[in-house]
Amino acid sequence: MRSLRSVLALAAAATLLAACATNSSTAAPGGASSAAPGTGGDKIGFIFVGPKDDYGYNQAAYEGSQAVAKAYPDLEVLTAENVPEDDNAARVMEGMIRKGAKIIFATSYGHKDPALKVAAANPDVVVLQQGNIVDGAVPPNFGTYFGTVYEPVYLAGIVAGKTTRTNKLGYVYAFPISQTLDNINAFQLGAASVNPAAKTYVVNTSSWCDPAKQAEAAKSLLAQGVDVISQHQDCTATVIRATEAAGRFTVGYHADATALAPKGWLTGSQWNWGPLYTTMVKTVLAGSFTGSPYNANFRVGLKTGDNPFVQSPYGPAVTDETKKLVETAMAKISKDGSPFLGPVVDQDGKERVPAGTVPDYKTIESIDYFVTGVVGKIPAS
């Protein structure tokens, strides 16, 4: 973690907690919050790349924003949905700042560059960006954060590996960025830890949420004999419904979608951002942001004890034996392990993590390869 010099006017918690209208407002698609500008006090802004009811990433982040609104009823929470990962994101954030926002959460991976731009232009506003690793000099009022979600994805892989009857698992993913590669690899490593014959077949959609592409991806995997499908998509309903309709098994991601797959749901990796968001806001309001762990590249997970995710409920097909395997693996990771505990070998047989080595967060979030057992190639950039 890098300590950042103290420059923030937010140190005066009394000022930040000044009275203002109490509500949480939601924007029209692609625009800034529809809330009327407040006449006093400060506000907190959240931007989301997709809709708040996507059964996925944006729904989990939105629910986290509402936890902040509940924890801080004297502060107005502004939200904006469907904010693209381009200059429009900067425009929406600037609009929130004009309405009094002193803390901004930019919750999508592609919001990083606009968030950096807004932070540099507004030194009295704390800008927190979800999901990236940043290097070099950054504005002192800017920080990144994320959870080590590949840990519960590994555990879900154990469930998939024990459940599959064809030894063919499927993974629908958006872009070949480190986060998706981490999750695919962790899923395969978890499955292989209990079923060495299991392989993970991948399909890339080049979109965070394109139901038509998702439907085609699911159809392709099902046609290959895949009987357990997971995904790294922002909106998850299309893939889950297609898998359920085919009588196959689902491993969820981002949010609890058991209602969509009453028969085939196995488990999932589910974000629970509320406690972490609330703690981060508390840190800023107390004037402790500078030098806190929330500045550059803060990561939380099973080892830190304040992880922002939970294992989704188990479905009816998951046996007690499998549940015990998951519990054992979770305890090991929480103590001194990692889904990427070496040796880790890539598709070409090259050792990427030596035996007995636990790679650090930055190394994991720089992964640019598929591990042995993943079927498919990373698209050329």
Automatic annotation (TrEMBL):
Kindly indicate where the leader peptide sits in this chain.
1-27
Q: Which UniProt keywords apply?
A: Signal
- Cite the Pfam families for this sequence: Bmp
- Is Chloroplast found in the keyword set? no
**InterPro entries xref list:** ABC-Purine-Binding (IPR052910), Peripla_BP_I (IPR028082), PnrA-like (IPR003760), TAT_signal (IPR006311)
Q: Which SUPFAM superfamilies match?
A: Periplasmic binding protein-like I
Report whether Cytoplasm shows up as a keyword of the record.
no
Which is a Gene Ontology cellular component entry for this protein?
plasma membrane
Limits of the ABC transporter substrate-binding protein PnrA-like domain: 43-306
Protein name, entry field: BMP family ABC transporter substrate-binding protein
Q: Which source organism does the UniProt entry give?
A: Paractinoplanes rishiriensis
